[in-house]
Amino acid sequence: MDSQETQHQETTNKKYEGIEEALDVDTEIVVQDGVAKPVKATPIKPAAHSEQIVKDYEYTRGNLYSLIEKGQEAVDGILELSQQTDSPRAFEVAGNLIKNVADATDKLNDLQKKMQELEEGPQGKAAQNVTNNTMFVGSTAELAKFLKQQKQNDK
Description:
Number of domains: 2
CATH architecture of the largest domain: Orthogonal Bundle
Order of helices and strands: HEEEEHHH
Structural class: mainly alpha
Largest sheet: 2 strands, antiparallel
Helix content: over 70%
Strand content: 5-15%
CATH topology of the largest domain: Helix Hairpins
Shape: flat
Number of helices: 4
């Protein structure tokens, strides 16, 4: 019986290994009353995750800066070429290139906003999204009377 339980536990552990790796957590499988139950998962290395985010941010930011600079140079070149040739196709390409450079700058701004949100954490966002719902319980006549009193008090 013990060998069967051990084999069952090993099979169950193998099922969760891929999930653990994908979610970057460690879990333990505890057998209680012959049933395998996972124990609460705990995150692994939150500091390393934060370092990865900063590294990815800096890498992406550098790439966007590079793309914007190269795009500006390309825009200057294509505008000069389109003015010399007066070709409608050259002007079309210049317009598309300008749009692409503008999109890259928008992505840079979005990246900056997302990084700020990550640095603020859930506390900063939760404090901004406070919604107070007030509910009146009573009849419509009572509500009308209450509103009339409020209106008189405001005068």
